[in-house]
Specification:
The C terminus is likely disordered. The strands form 2 sheets. A 6-stranded antiparallel sheet has the order 1-2-3-4-6-5. It has a 3-stranded antiparallel sheet with strand order 7-8-9. 37% of the residues lie in helices and 11% in strands. It contains 13 helices and 9 strands. The protein has one domain: Transferase(Phosphotransferase), domain 1. By secondary structure, the protein is an alpha+beta fold. Helix 3 runs antiparallel to helix 7, helix 6 runs antiparallel to helix 9 and helix 9 packs across helix 11. The two termini are 40 Å apart.
Length: 424
Amino acid sequence: MPVQLEAATERARARIGTVLKRKWHLDQLLGVGGMAAVYAATHRNKKRVAIKMLHPELSLDEAIRKRFLREGYIANSVAQRGAVAVDYDDVSDEGLAFLVMELLDGESIEQRWQRKGRVLSPREALSVVDQLLDTLTAAHTLGIVHRDLKPENLFLTRDGTVKVLDFGIARVRELSTPLTTLAGSAIGTPAFMAPEQARGRWQDVDGRTDLWAVGATLYTLLTGKFVHSADTASETLALAATRPARSIAERRPDLHPSLIRLVDRALSYDQAARFPDAASMQHALRVTYGALEGRDVSHALHLGIPDLQSIPSSRAITLRNLKAPRLADVSGQASAFALRQRPKLWLALALLASLLASVAWLRSRPSPSSAVSLAQPRAPEAVAPASSGPGFAPQSGAEPPEPKAIRVDDLPQEPAKGSPARHR
């Protein structure tokens, strides 16, 4: 770990437990990178968020600070579930620019890759990239190019959504070049940089530059190696700028030919030889996935990612407002909801009891026009599923069960004032 990053991490840890702008309590340090530190925090209204705070040496530069705050909202304009929402921006009392973002529950794709022995299966890798291309299609349509795509900037939530982190941050890095050595590269990550980006030809950088990084991500997830690797970041950058990528078949000749063609085309040195846009690459990816599965999935929305529940619980806090509920928590959440709704439920049940009493009285009267008494027992009807209740509709063709009389003593009592609802 570079000395500068160690110092930045120590400074970031020292802020844990402090209250930012008298609103956000910094609960936990989630990570420190070349540009900023990220915290899990709690607002005074108890809402949980993630806060990304620019390092002090970068916040001193007004141009960088303004760009950081402005570019932080790029993800919001993408308006796609794969982009991490930014809710608020400000500058701390120390003069540090920060962004307030949604809090996620899960792990980064890099963490998952490391946890699985630095190689993902072709099906899992393609499933991750399929969702990534959904987000890039939306972003590129708006003229937004990420420029720093890599496994570390892809996050898998516990509900199976792939989130793309750090939209716009690569553009902030360009301004920080003279000031910082915290990042391995001020303009991206060399191992995932397209040739035109590595050469600094920013006028040539476009959506196809991101697609090269998507190919490099697939290459790494499938082989456990980088497209270009050297002893230093500068040497890796030189290779990225001057040397075409070798075919993935050299490292994984066992891969399906369609998958080899997909990765090799994305990693073409010549921009014109790559996929023209993210939608085209996604179509080719789904055709490839179909070839692996032996079926047509070219129109599938999402291909699915296996064993999401295997994500370690220690990684449960990262970048989202609300944690995804665990199955064990559902009953507790339902109980808390019922407690909050008891006044309304009591009134509804009282009305229902009154109605049932009226029906029972009408049934007790003999009908002169019918040979069968209304009070005659009816044949047993289908019992509603155990999950039925308010908000659940019966299945088509099934009649609801006959309501039973309810005694007043059976009605739930309204809790006394100040009695807290229990949460699991």
